[in-house]
Amino acid sequence: MELYIKWRETPIKIKAYIYTCEKLSKTLNEELETRNIESTIPQTIIPETITLSIHQIVQGILHYAIYASKQSRVKNRGLLLATMITGINQLSELIQRLTNSFQHSHYYYLVGVEHRPVNLHKCSALKLGDLLEKSPLMNSLVKNAYIVLSLF
To answer: Under a CB-based contact definition with an 8 Å cutoff, are residues 89 and 82 in contact?
Structure first.
């Protein structure tokens, strides 16, 4: 999916890849290896149980595209993307919540920004209709905007 926004009078085009995937491994670390996700590439696994709406993921992708170049504190691009999606700004808490949620979920979102994930076995691409049929929960979107601002 390509997202087009105008940020400070500058048009921005973002390639966003969002898939719903079935777990292939028992642990999050094994799944990251199986999916060939590297820390230098903005790709992440977001268990379905950790988000309130798909709009939260889209908002996190937009925040990543706008603010990632200004954020040098977090070297792992996937964790930075996950922070912007979930609104959890403490990395230790984020890793713990992702790990625990992964254990209790059968499905998760595989998310990439500008880089399409490589291993898409048992994954299906999110369709535009998926965004339109569910209304966003505003409290999660506001929280994510607050977290992004607090990172700087």
So the answer is: no
Output the pLDDT for position 129: 62
CATH number of 2-150: 3.30.2380.10
Q: Over range 72-89, report the average pLDDT.
A: 89
Handedness of CA 53, 116, 69, 89 (dihedral sign): positive
CA 147 to chain centre: 14
Segments in 1-152 forming alpha helices (H): 28-34, 54-67, 77-86, 91-104, 128-133, 138-150
Domain boundaries of the chain, sorted by first residue: 2-150
Listed residue (103, 134, 146, 120) closest to 43, CA to CA: 120
Residues forming beta bridges with residue 79, ordered by sequence position: none
Whole-model pTM: value is 0.81
| Distance of alpha carbon 151 from alpha carbon 137, whole angstroms | 22
What pLDDT, on a 0 to 100 scale, did the predictor assign at position 97? 95
**Coil/strand/helix, residue 75:** coil
CA distance 115 to 92: 25
Rounded distance between C-alpha atoms, residue 30 and residue 144, angstroms: 28
Angle (CA) 22-23-29 rounded to 5° is 145
